[in-house]
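Lab notebook, bench 4. Still working through the backlog of constructs that have no structural model yet. Next entry is a single chain of 223 residues. Request: give me the structure tokens for it.
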Amino acid sequence: MTPARARTVHLVVAVVAWGAVLFQLVLVLMGSAVLVEEDPPSLGESIYRFFAYFTIQSNLLVAVASSVLARDPLASQPWWRVVRLAGLVGITVTGLVHFFLLRPLLDLDGADYVADKVLHMVVPVLAIAAWAWCGPRPRVVRREIAYALAWPVAWTTWTLVAAQASGWVPYPFMDADKDGWGPVVVACVAITVLFLALFALAAWLDRRLPAVPVDGSADTALG
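Model written out:
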């Protein structure tokens, strides 16, 4: 895999991820619901809720990281490594949680269905495939894992605290008012374990898979 080819692959991922987020935002602004809403929120609340979804945040991280790679397929800035790792693991969790927990709850059609599938299935598959094929690798060290893990921990904490004030949660399995704290804690612990396992897997694969792209500088110092 050459840097030129890698640049093209990352550009495709960036375009799809940005397009999916913007498409869903347009639908939200037009009054579409991401999940079924019995009491539609105001425009401002709709925008807040849109960006509060882990799905949207993980897609944005993929979009930003892939945009950097589309310009520089050998990127290795410390901040970028954190964004890349967080986006890669986050979009994987997005796909898995959607497929096993959320997909049965959704009844979408038309544009809403398309946006949902691109955000939850197409972007995760493209992001993982691009990383496996184009890298760049190696890039993962413990420091980046710690920083990247701070995002889902902060998101979970904020979501649960904000829910006590607003009564709204982005995902049904985080609704303590409906199911009690027991199931919510179990779900959050299970997803945290999934995150830790995926971070460990990413770090292991980062070292085991071939260094790419290949142009003589793929072994950039990890510092």
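Notes after review: Confidence is low (pLDDT under 50) at residues 217-223. Helices lie at 3-29, 43-52, 54-71, 78-102, 110-134, 142-166, 176-179, 181-208. Flag for follow-up if needed.
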